[in-house]
């Protein structure tokens, strides 16, 4: 009987284990999980803090019992410390510090990513006990929750204004905490163009968050008066103080285990895998936030996303049992809700496309989400990036209010990007229309038509 | 100077005129409009009756002044009565009955469709003055509005439970009118599978509409006691009475003008056009609800939709000026809001696919619109039809509550159908995810994965 071992209790590891059990119920599957919380939705953590999700247990995609019912074995609170590739054996350490070994026939590594510290002094040394937090695991979540519940902070500094930073700004604000958000770049949500990021910034400011962009944080320090964050803004040193500091400045691939086993690192310092999720090490597959991603428009890149981890894990699980599934590729589709606004993107932005050798151009339009005569019509801001040579659609970005179907409108672009459609082909699409929910030319097509007019 | 004449003031005719003026501001454009209401949104009429749209003038996509500002000339209240193809001349009759002629270099015919009467005796003879209505034009709209305002009907029978019939049931119900809806087929909204139609029926019934399916209306009669609708149900004769009757049993292409000019009729009795919207008559293009539609999966068919009329009109306008644009094809995408429910489809249903020579199979699933742990998650019912031989996606149907992004989720399928993706490729798509608005595997992918599991 084949013994498949998956390392990692998050999207990639669990997806691999589930797929293996689905394809072959006779296969023996063990999942090695570093903590006691397998299959938790890390993307949902901000909604625990906003109070939308209660209790924290409901953040589990599947319960422990659900997982065991599939026939997989879970080794919780167990850290994989090394892989003996030749011996097809894993060394693990349990919570008591005791080491043991697990033999495998096939291994899927889904160790994910770790919080980045972006060179900010003090971040690695200060802990939740000091009032300095990250939120990357359920353990981080409990520590932050304890802080909020027991110490009732009135003010918080969030370092970073990306997806999680903005979601946490919303969550803290909803609890009555005064938030100061510090962002290195010129605008919040640096994954979209600043023209659209400005709309997101206006939304968080409208809800009472103080936002400082162009602010490079240098260090975090614990003082008698609270936590001090020292930064540089417009060439001048500035200091902000608060009761609590949350650092959400991105992630870095957690590659130590595979690196020590001899795997090769590539884009973003992630472990190189091919489209079948093979690492090049015999019988060792890898998936998720620790590995490179095949991007339809870019080739191999590093783009850690939960959706990708689910897909890659599933493929790794299938191929570990001898399958030949291929990861079809990401187009970098992302969406975030920030208070009452939704911001989404798919594909490349102009500078990314340029760096990849395309000849891109971008246009922006504003179009109503549905016929203006029907109550509640709202403007959508849409930016289209296309290749002026091949006319291929390269990317789309969109900001609209909650309720404007912005999230699923970006999926039209995601599908078009996946299928390799031109900008003009998007204008030709037969999209749905009823006056309360759309227009005869949907907003996405108003946008692509504008691009075509501007770049004939 | 080229003189382009468009016949028809609705989507096709106006789109042709707009496109021509956009491409060449020197071209002379005349639009012959049978009534005084060019460029009105016929799809919006039900929302005038529901009270969502006020005043009726806001139903205009563009005002008269907007249209004239583009440089086109409008000949309102003018009916085109014949085309002299050889002489490139049109005979028209104005509201006084006087005939005149209009010469053209290029002609675009967009005469649209007429209400169907489905062989129901009395429908053609009885008029709004008798309390019997259709709603296909602004004239019909005013007549029905006058009836509602001046005679305050308490009860209405709607014959037909398609898109407009259901929208009008909602509109009447909102005004306090007790609606009885009679539908020939076994379920309401016969454009989707009855399994999903049943959900729509439950929604209208929940709002107080009395629905009788399996009811074939034979005649409408004016009696002393009101209007009597005689029908057959389960082999027995039944009669329903009400203060008002609205017949919305579909449309038939309005082809008289082009037929008399020598054009060929095809699918659904519509005028045959090629993908460039040419009728085969020299210098005569046609577009919209009166002509055949190129369907990506079916070839030439009859499928009158406003979205298609806009696209075809635009192409006719471009080609009338010597262009060579092609209509890329419909995939039959449709959506309707019925009270708080949204029903949508794209592509083919199983029996349609079978008739077209595919080897179709269909599966149905229910999946949440977003992560269940975030408040407000709602079930989406999704049916997928795929070809078991080629694995091509053939069609998708979906019903969900308002706010579940159902309308724009169907667009993912519409884009996939347009691009010729397989069912498995839809599962591979990189769709957007954030817990309040989706899932790591979007509901559309839960549906396609289920299809693949059922038909391996």
TrEMBL record, chains A, B:
The keyword Ligase does not apply. GO terms for molecular function: oxidoreductase activity. Residues 335-438 form the Pyridine nucleotide-disulphide oxidoreductase dimerisation domain. Keywords: FAD, Flavoprotein, Oxidoreductase, Redox-active center. InterPro entries: FAD-bd_OxRdtase, FAD/NAD-bd_sf, FAD/NAD-binding_dom, FAD/NAD-linked_Rdtase_dimer_sf, Pyr_nucl-diS_OxRdtase_dimer. Residues 3-313 form the FAD/NAD(P)-binding domain. Its cofactor is FAD. It comes from the Bacteria. Pfam families: Pyr_redox_2 (PF07992), Pyr_redox_dim (PF02852). Belongs to the class-III pyridine nucleotide-disulfide oxidoreductase family. This is CoA-disulfide reductase.
